Amino acid sequence: LDPVRTALCLSHQRALRHFLDRKPEADWGLIFEDDTRPGESLASLPTDEIELIVPEDAEILFLHDRVWKRGRSQRDASPDCEGWRIVRGGIGLEAYLVSRLGARKMLDAFRPVIKECDIQLMTFMEGYADLEAKQEMRVLLQEEGHTRFPTIRAYAPVSPLFQTDHWQPSVKFDTMAEAR
Question: How confident is the model at residue 101 (pLDDT cuts 50, 70, 90)?
Fold first, then answer.
């Protein structure tokens, strides 16, 4: 794994630790990458205060437009909360809400870092669709001494609240290109 991708994962770990250690009163932490902007569905909401009704068992809510979709399958809909779908893969980490338990599970999933953090993390998702990739990642992690494989319950909104800003791309892409 190149130094830039390692640094990206470490920055997410740092944000998760900050949430857990310095925000003990908060039930959820909101984390953004530098190339995230409000999506149309968020911009169209009528109030300054937004209240999200989320699935009861949610540990991570991926709020951006890069979450892989399998189509409009009924099987992907959240069973107890309208407007949310189960994450099956292809997550990205541009914008997400994470519960305290979800943050601890994410930190477990990132130890050790052997792949890009979103690729490594999605193999821990309860609904992850690519079982072969999940097994391959677990074998790699076991070879590195990883013994815990937490199951993470993740959802995404049917209409993303945030999107990647293609006009102002993240500096991470330039840095990765320079590192090659």
Answer: very high
Kindly report, residue by residue over 126-157, the tens digit of the pLDDT.
Answer: 888 888 988 999 999 999 998 888 899 999 88
Element (H, E) at 85: strand 84-86
Q: Where are the alpha helices (DSSP H) in the chain?
A: 3-22, 40-43, 100-109, 117-122, 131-143, 171-179
DSSP state, residue 167: S
**Number of alpha carbons in the 13 Å side-chain half-sphere of residue 102:** 28
Vertex 9: Cα angle to 7 and 12 (nearest 5): 110
Q: Is the pTM of this model over 0.90?
A: no
Dump pLDDT digits (tens) for 71-100.
Answer: 555 567 777 778 888 888 878 888 899 999
Question: Which residues, at least 6 apart from 160, have a Cβ–Cβ distance to it below 8 Å?
Answer: 39, 41, 63, 64, 65, 67
- Alpha-carbon distance of 7 to 30, in angstroms, equals 19
What's the token pair of residue 87?
A: 């994450």
**Beta pairing, strands 84-86 & 154-157:** antiparallel
By the 8 A CB rule, do 102 and 152 touch? yes
